[in-house]
Amino acid sequence: MQPHELSLAEAADAIRARRLSPVELVDSVLGRVEEAEPHLGAYVTVAAEQARRAAAEAEHEVAQGCYRGPLHGIPMALKDLIDVSGMPTTASSRVRAGHRATADSAVAARLGAAGAILLGKTHTHEFAFGLTTPQTRNAWDPGRVAGGSSGGSAVAVASGTATFALGTDTGGSIRVPAALNGVVGLKPTYGLVPRHGVTSLSWSLDHVGPITRTVEDAALVLTALAGHDPRDPASLSAPAADYRPGPATDLTGLRVGLPRTYYFDHVHPQVEAAVRSAVAQLEALGAQLVEVDIPMTRYIQATQWGLMVPEAGSYHEGSLRTVPERYQEDVRILLEASELMSAGDYLRAQRARTLMRAEWARMLERVDVIAAPTVPMPAVRADEQTVTWPDGTTESVSDAYVRLCAPANITGVPALTVPVGHDAAGMPIGLQLLGRPLDEPTLLRVGHAYQQTRPGPRGHTVRSRVSSPSP
Amino acid sequence: MQPHELSLAEAADAIRARRLSPVELVDSVLGRVEEAEPHLGAYVTVAAEQARRAAAEAEHEVAQGCYRGPLHGIPMALKDLIDVSGMPTTASSRVRAGHRATADSAVAARLGAAGAILLGKTHTHEFAFGLTTPQTRNAWDPGRVAGGSSGGSAVAVASGTATFALGTDTGGSIRVPAALNGVVGLKPTYGLVPRHGVTSLSWSLDHVGPITRTVEDAALVLTALAGHDPRDPASLSAPAADYRPGPATDLTGLRVGLPRTYYFDHVHPQVEAAVRSAVAQLEALGAQLVEVDIPMTRYIQATQWGLMVPEAGSYHEGSLRTVPERYQEDVRILLEASELMSAGDYLRAQRARTLMRAEWARMLERVDVIAAPTVPMPAVRADEQTVTWPDGTTESVSDAYVRLCAPANITGVPALTVPVGHDAAGMPIGLQLLGRPLDEPTLLRVGHAYQQTRPGPRGHTVRSRVSSPSP
């Protein structure tokens, strides 16, 4: 196996044991970037020289016996909404022409302190306001969407051009591209990972989190990211914790909530089958299945958009007046729509959120996690704008991809997506696990148990072929 | 001294020592209600029979050696926004005709469990949306405003028709009437006292708190009120505490911030003189004075109104459509104005609040409390709509009364008003003490030290004359 194919945990073990040097690992990943990136378009910027210098330094530190922990010498990519001192934060937008960050974001600083090596910045749907990331191609089929908005990060991790990456998630933007590219994505509890220095889409829904090849890897990254930062007004003061899950795969005593409503409505049958088969595996590991009714489902879409659109409009107010022509049309229209919203509309969404949080808290007293699809259908072709369901209902692709992710943004509960198979066209399918606020340990334990016990030779796959034709 | 003239602490000591029975105390206060209430209009409802029965029961409990603590057998009044099971919550509004609460509010339940005896419900400016409480007359001069919106509660405490009362405070509604009637009012830290079962004006600014004759009394009531309740989404999980201040009056080491800006602008000279003289007393007790500059002062008014108006409009949306004619005109106009506000206006106010909170936290690292006037002028005559300052500036009475109170609502910091003298017309003046979030103990210690050491025979006065002519 090539070093660029290793999971973070595997690479970390090899580096700590000095079986692998950070220089070899970074060289391998940069070689993969050279080979695959022209076909993928995952990166806005690759900082190869800077990464090689950092790798040499990391190697030197290890040789001196100074090992910083599991991220030491691991090459990673940051969604290009995340500030790194001295680099532009483009947000994949012409609006940011000439931008240069003067300080590290909280998460970039924490990853740097943990020894991770920045390879580059990855594409986002412009300012994170979309679900496809049109600049980037799906790692499994270049004719299909990468998903978004953290499309570049998910494709980089899936294709071996980064060992892990960070994304942001306002309505599914970590989980959607992770699911569509067959990797793991974690949207942590609202407020657990500080957002200082990260471009905002909608501050009451925005989250930063890891995209990785395995659940264990997500836990290792979360351990470095979590913790209070007073510069983010929503940052929680939860104590630091080690999120790495233990090796036990026995789930006896765990109550898995299986939604009777909402999460299996208008879902592709192959997605439903793969998710139910994964849930059966959790049951085989000892979990008890409990049917649950998702509360207030008819308010989810209005609440998500009712919060997101005005907050995004408020954030972009200045540049929308001065340089509207620099936005892509889809994003500009959404931002302009915010000017038509009344304070009353926004407050109705805020009040619905408060009620939904309380109802979800009540539901999560009865079960430990909820298991559901991450998205209702795998990656669509890049030219598809809508999806039509068997009952004749038509839905925009964006609405469909947001639909099953939004509840975790509105309520702030943590949500993890784990790959659980492929559809007939070979496109990946994601299982979503949702849990109680700050109960990431349970989500990660369940996801890790699943990955350790699922049939097949390994816990993760790097998509080695590039530009394979669509079947 | 008549029992109705006792402070809560004095009455509690006498009840515990069996020198006074709850029945005698309640009878004395009800006698005072009969005498004074026709001239004051403080009460919406007096539940005399119910109070007498509760007093007999409280007396029986004490006789059996079951003493619940300092509120046991103490007669009190609740602002008529606060639900009591089986009674209407009128909000002093025709909109609430036929209303009946089916459960106790969190604070009514806590006071009941502590042994306090409900005398009745007091007038509020309709739905708390105003600063005068037109139904109620000032306890010191019937030709002047009671202040609002908790006007009935403050007048009841000042005139001896309740030993203590609760009010609510969204832009000064506890502190303004307390200051105008010469009593103590405490707006606690946002989230410290749960609001479940209390009619909302503006949920991100609303607070419930005590109105009492002394600072010590306010501490005794706060001890019974504070603590988490999951039914209020903003309720903090601060641990229970005994807020009663110790007897020490030495303030050595205390840093008192004296505002160089904002709090002494457009303030009546007699108010300024009384406040500065009270501050000199704190200095004489050992406090160190530190000049502070209040941050972001030009955003205060827009932020207060920008949050309050849309939230109030959202709360009243239904009845404003169905029964607009049942509102008083002043309140209806403010509620209708909310329909003209955009989501962007509201979000600007929310963002300004976030910045103000951070700036205030920074300022409150340098000082322990801030000392300032509570309101810029004493109670105006009931027919005055505006006030004109020496530089020719004209301001509405409402704007003037909100102006110095709003920062504590916006930032959520605790604020205590303490009577510090009278103007030439004999009308009371209030000193406002503001502190760090959850640092009520320091505010109460400073206010209590002031009241124990100020010149004069007693710590509080009940206004015994009623319907005295204006001088």
Description of the structure:
The first copy, chain A, has 14 helices and 13 strands. The first copy, chain A, has 2 domains: 422 residues, Amidase signature (AS) enzymes (Alpha-Beta Complex); 41 residues, no CATH class. The longest helix of chain A has 24 residues. Chain A starts with 7 loop residues before the first helix and ends in an 18-residue tail after the last helix. Chain A is 38% helix and 14% strand. Chain A has 471 residues and is α/β, with parallel strands linked by helices. An 11-stranded mixed beta sheet of chain A has the order 1-3-2-4-6-5-12-13-9-7-8, with helices on both faces. The first copy, chain A, has a two-stranded antiparallel ribbon with strand order 10-11. The radius of gyration of chain A is 21 Å and the shape is globular. At the A-B interface, α9 and α11 of A face α9 and α11 of B.
Concise summary:
Chain A is of the alpha/beta class. Chain A has helices at 8-16, 22-40, 48-63, 106-113, 151-159, 175-180, 215-225, 269-284, 300-322, 329-337, 343-366, 397-403, 406-411, 440-453, and strands at 43-46, 75-79, 117-122, 164-169, 184-187, 207-212, 255-259, 288-292, 369-373, 386-388, 394-396, 415-422, 428-435.
